[in-house]
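Protocol check, entry for the methods section draft. Step 1: assemble the input record (protein sequence plus ligand SMILES). Step 2: submit for complex structure prediction. Step 3: store the structure tokens unaltered in the notebook. Ligand used here: adenosine-5'-diphosphate. Step 1 record:
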Amino acid sequence: MSELVIKNLHVNVEDIEISKGIDLTIKSGEIHAVMGPNGTGKSTLAYALMGHPKYKVIKGEATLDGVDLLSLAPNERSTLGLFLAFQYPVAVPGVSVANFLRTAINAHRKYLDPEDKGISIPEFRKLLKDKMALLQMDESFAGRYLNDGFSGGEKKRVEILQMATLEPKFSILDETDSGLDIDALKIVADGVNAISSEDQGVLVITHYQRILNYIKPDFVHVMLNGRIVESGGPELALQLEEDGYEWLRERHAA
Ligand SMILES: Nc1ncnc2c1ncn2[C@@H]1O[C@H](COP(=O)(O)OP(=O)(O)O)[C@@H](O)[C@H]1O
Ligand SMILES: [Mg+2]
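Step 3, stored output:
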């Protein structure tokens, strides 16, 4: 069993404090949702955990199975088993999806064992084929240049494919649902459900309750103004859909 532990995390973006003391513990096999209005610091939490240089942790800690993440470079965090699916994935013309994934897998292997010769082509092909089948993706996808001319839904699917092939211990999905039509949303959700049932932990960051109809979170947290102000079960997400965030704003107005 693995554990991602965040304690009293404070994060500055360009010298302004955005995250103001976040506590969150996620265990293997658990799905946590962080919800909240735009601009409340949801992405800031994700980027700070992954080690984006613009997001400066000024206080607090984040550990994965007791290992201090904050002192590590982003690629080291990734190798330890942390994965972030971006809200806005970048295009890399000239690099195919398959090549990109194989390079990422090999980078992990090499970090863990400098003697590693990399995943064999047949082994990689099989892995890719299995994971694409799991996510109901067309095989032609693998040969296309990464995110180059991809629709919003296709970009999100590639993020989920990465998550499936890298098999991280913990994945953070930052608004992976935004811009998806209902079919793409279901496929992403099915992928996440399949992955979490393989004992990975998942943090779903979302603005809307909609994706939580398909991904059943064990815990729901609400972020307002850089803090988690409310935590509960799936019913909290439903209540937010009914009542919005205003009642929470009033309650935590101080
Ligand atoms: N790279 C950045 N540069 C400057 N300000 C930023 C940056 N990222 C986030 N912010 C600011 O931090 C606040 C929280 O942003 P963000 O974490 O993206 O919120 P959310 O994901 O909840 O919409 C916002 O006021 C935003 O303008
Ligand atoms: Mg965001």
